[in-house]
Amino acid sequence: MSGYNYEEDSPLANKSNIPEKSFLESLSDDGLLEYIAGLSQEQGEDHGEQYSRGDYFHDKQKRQEKQDREFRERYGNGSELFSGISIYVNGFTKPGRLQLHEMVVANGGKFVHFLSCKGRVSHIIASNLPLKKRVELASYKICRPEWIVDSIEEGKLLPWQDYALLSDQDEIQPKLPQTAIVSCKHPDFLKQFFSKSRLHHLSNWKSDLRAEFCERFLEKPLRIPGKSEVVTVFHIDFDCFFASVSAAANGFDIHAEPIVVCHGTKNSDIASCNYEARRYGIRNGMWVGTAVRMMPRGKKLVRLGYDFEQFELMSKRFYQILHDSQFELVLPISIDEAVCVTGYLTHSECELICRGIRENVSNVTNGCTVSIGCGGSLVLARLALKRSKPDGYQIVDCDGLDDVFWSHLKIEDLPGVGHSLACKISEYSYPPIGNLLELRQMAQDSLRRCVGEKMGNKIYLAVRGKDDEESCKMIYEPRQFFQRKSLSIDINWGIRFDTIYEIDEFIDRCTQYLIDKLRELDKKTSQLTLKIMKRSKDEAIEPPKYLGMGKCDPVARSTRLGVPTDEFGVIATEIKSTFRSLCCPPRELRGIAIQFNKLEKTASNQAKLPFVDAKIYQNLPSDVKSEIGRELNKRSINIRRTAPKRINSYQEQFIQELPTQIRGEVENEIHITNKVNKTKFDEIKEQVAKRQNEKVNAKSHFLGENTILLPIKFQNQTNFKKIIQLVMNWVDGTIRSQGPHEKDLRLFEKYLQRLSDTNRLPLVLRICKLISVKLELRSEFFSHCNGFQEWEKVLLQMILPKLNKNKHTFQTVRKLDIDFDT
DNA sequence: TGAGTGTGGTAGC
DNA sequence: AATCGCTACCACACTCA
């Protein structure tokens, strides 16, 4: 170890000269937070009395600055290897903390001593991390110290991912033989399902690649070609990616046997099949059983499983090659596919590039092949790619395109044209259009009439080798193009529930999943959509595919939230409430999708507002607390729990969890109450209190326990009884006077509407009956009163119509009564 | 006429 | 044993004021 002596540098002698106050004041916000964290951290260690807080920290601060300067002077050969990187070392490491500190600082990096403030640390170095800490630091880049050592040795910054600290659990846990399927009622369902879902992986990879593109862009703004510039586009794509990679990983020769990648043996989707399998007519997306039947007698079809890790690894190497090539833009399309853009290149230059890439990729992926299409526009590159497959490349020049090129392309080869549009187009004229050569003959107007304005235009341009404006955005406004605009989760497999409560729990878990992602993005949402898949009438309860969704009717409903939010309570409650409004009997549900539609950046003043962890604050030596407290106060820095819980009063939390509609009302009520408190009209006050009480009780009925983690309980007898009690008192109290107040009545009506919207007509019926009985009982004395007549009107004009309107659904609702325990 | 909603289609393997 | 049918985004038809 180098000869640094910390004690030597301690400017203890100076301590009396520095007024304590000015020291605190002299620190930046970050510095202050660090100071507090440090103080709290060191509190447990035996420091001795001679060390007072001011000196201690001042020492530390000065010492560190000095150290860093010295390190750099002594060792810094001007290396900027770690420039822009700031590391934090956690726990015991080899080499040790001090050595790492030295290495990083000497090479232009920053060394952070405390993890007090998020965002200041780019990497965490650790050799071993206990599970708890791992969870706590999950959002950081955590890698082993060898990353630093090796990077210095190599003289270049190595990818930290290669040194990522794997959890002990990951390593120790033995690979279990196929685990049984976890039911959708089980908390681990989502995790297990996603871990095996190819589509989930494809979607996630795509999002990650897009996010990475944006980050890259932010770091180093790319040169975007001008719209008038001539560009060359390379569209590069693996040949049957999953099949190739799985085959290579399992030692199969991709050319020798027909291979498919799938889970099962019968009604399982084929994610990918090699060209050998395609010779027999097998296609991606087919069921395995169908494919097996297409094989000639005696010929075997090889079935391989998914190896998502391997797919990811191969993709990483693929993209690495593209990034290392001299493209101006590398645009991610999917895990195995990218579009690369350069300025004008000659034909032979293009050829050189295509060959180079194909060879490089094959070298690093155990012989997997990519095909490349190259042309002067996105669409030409893509069409050329189609023609080049498999295992080839094609460079096309717009002017030199012959009829052969077009006649070999199918309508579905056009980007954005799938099965549905292809059918529409081919059937639009007689004889049916079969290839792009024929489609080129179609007039722009007919095309637009056939497939719509935009798509008609797009296709018209596409068959002439030109991109439409929308597709161009990928090149000319890539950041906007790859920016995420929504966030959602879809589950349409394995969904089999019996009760509404199980669905509530499931919705809670989905919501939590989304919120975690939302917070990672530092965003909030202001519009939600719930989409469900409901078994179509007359469809079998269990479809051919095991736990599949079968034929379903999709239904969607969206909600606007007044204020963008990332609160679990608000969102989960809203979704659960929306689910009820869609009237799907629990057993008929086959799929759920939840979307966050309008994403907004978390308000910057809120996001950046520094805060001190309450725990840390509590740990401070008591003599400093008050002083620190004052300083924090002065700077408007909050003390709060680390898991930010912004709701502090019971009432607020309660309101947060109400569905928006009701929330608005309750908030309004509270607003009125506050006003009333000022004007002190006792009578009104009483009325409002009563009304509010009634509302709150009504909400308790909806929400049951107020803990967000508990399932919503609808059968809470006590609460419903309370509501009835309230209503009855209300009727009693107003029957002999002027009748119900209009405002009260409106609230009451909304409550009834809510009940009927959420399939609880029996409750409405019960309220109806009780009121009717009450009126009957009172008719002898009060039938002449205004109030009596008003109530009769309510019964006949408001409540009964609701029941009648829903008569047709009453039958099904009846069946659900058991669930609602009325 | 413009804004908002729900539906449908497509893309990747 | 089966089986893991996701998810972001655009365009359109429709409704409402």
Automatic annotation (TrEMBL):
<dbReference type="GO" id="GO:0003684">
    <property type="term" value="F:damaged DNA binding"/>
</dbReference>
<dbReference type="InterPro" id="IPR043128">
    <property type="entry name" value="Rev_trsase/Diguanyl_cyclase"/>
</dbReference>
<feature type="domain" description="UmuC">
    <location>
        <begin position="233"/>
        <end position="418"/>
    </location>
</feature>
<comment type="similarity">
    <text>Belongs to the DNA polymerase type-Y family.</text>
</comment>
<dbReference type="InterPro" id="IPR036775">
    <property type="entry name" value="DNA_pol_Y-fam_lit_finger_sf"/>
</dbReference>
<feature type="binding site">
    <location>
        <position position="237"/>
    </location>
    <ligand>
        <name>Mg(2+)</name>
    </ligand>
</feature>
<dbReference type="GO" id="GO:0006281">
    <property type="term" value="P:DNA repair"/>
</dbReference>
<keyword id="KW-0460">Magnesium</keyword>
<keyword id="KW-0227">DNA damage</keyword>
<dbReference type="InterPro" id="IPR036420">
    <property type="entry name" value="BRCT_dom_sf"/>
</dbReference>
<keyword id="KW-0548">Nucleotidyltransferase</keyword>
<dbReference type="InterPro" id="IPR001126">
    <property type="entry name" value="UmuC"/>
</dbReference>
<dbReference type="InterPro" id="IPR017961">
    <property type="entry name" value="DNA_pol_Y-fam_little_finger"/>
</dbReference>
<feature type="region of interest" description="Disordered">
    <location>
        <begin position="1"/>
        <end position="20"/>
    </location>
</feature>
<dbReference type="GO" id="GO:0005634">
    <property type="term" value="C:nucleus"/>
</dbReference>
<dbReference type="GO" id="GO:0017125">
    <property type="term" value="F:deoxycytidyl transferase activity"/>
</dbReference>
<dbReference type="Pfam" id="PF11799">
    <property type="entry name" value="IMS_C"/>
</dbReference>
<feature type="binding site">
    <location>
        <position position="336"/>
    </location>
    <ligand>
        <name>Mg(2+)</name>
    </ligand>
</feature>
<dbReference type="InterPro" id="IPR043502">
    <property type="entry name" value="DNA/RNA_pol_sf"/>
</dbReference>
<keyword id="KW-0539">Nucleus</keyword>
<keyword id="KW-0479">Metal-binding</keyword>
<dbReference type="GO" id="GO:0003887">
    <property type="term" value="F:DNA-directed DNA polymerase activity"/>
</dbReference>
<dbReference type="InterPro" id="IPR012112">
    <property type="entry name" value="REV1"/>
</dbReference>
<dbReference type="Pfam" id="PF16589">
    <property type="entry name" value="BRCT_2"/>
</dbReference>
<dbReference type="GO" id="GO:0070987">
    <property type="term" value="P:error-free translesion synthesis"/>
</dbReference>
<dbReference type="Pfam" id="PF00817">
    <property type="entry name" value="IMS"/>
</dbReference>
<keyword id="KW-0238">DNA-binding</keyword>
<dbReference type="InterPro" id="IPR001357">
    <property type="entry name" value="BRCT_dom"/>
</dbReference>
<keyword id="KW-0237">DNA synthesis</keyword>
<protein>
    <recommendedName>
        <fullName>DNA repair protein REV1</fullName>
    </recommendedName>
</protein>
<dbReference type="GO" id="GO:0042276">
    <property type="term" value="P:error-prone translesion synthesis"/>
</dbReference>
<keyword id="KW-0808">Transferase</keyword>
<dbReference type="InterPro" id="IPR053848">
    <property type="entry name" value="IMS_HHH_1"/>
</dbReference>
<dbReference type="GO" id="GO:0046872">
    <property type="term" value="F:metal ion binding"/>
</dbReference>
<feature type="compositionally biased region" description="Basic and acidic residues">
    <location>
        <begin position="44"/>
        <end position="64"/>
    </location>
</feature>
<comment type="function">
    <text>Deoxycytidyl transferase involved in DNA repair. Transfers a dCMP residue from dCTP to the 3'-end of a DNA primer in a template-dependent reaction. May assist in the first step in the bypass of abasic lesions by the insertion of a nucleotide opposite the lesion. Required for normal induction of mutations by physical and chemical agents. Involved in mitochondrial DNA mutagenesis.</text>
</comment>
<feature type="domain" description="BRCT">
    <location>
        <begin position="77"/>
        <end position="165"/>
    </location>
</feature>
<feature type="binding site">
    <location>
        <position position="337"/>
    </location>
    <ligand>
        <name>Mg(2+)</name>
    </ligand>
</feature>
<dbReference type="Pfam" id="PF21999">
    <property type="entry name" value="IMS_HHH_1"/>
</dbReference>
<feature type="region of interest" description="Disordered">
    <location>
        <begin position="39"/>
        <end position="64"/>
    </location>
</feature>
<keyword id="KW-0234">DNA repair</keyword>
<feature type="compositionally biased region" description="Acidic residues">
    <location>
        <begin position="1"/>
        <end position="10"/>
    </location>
</feature>
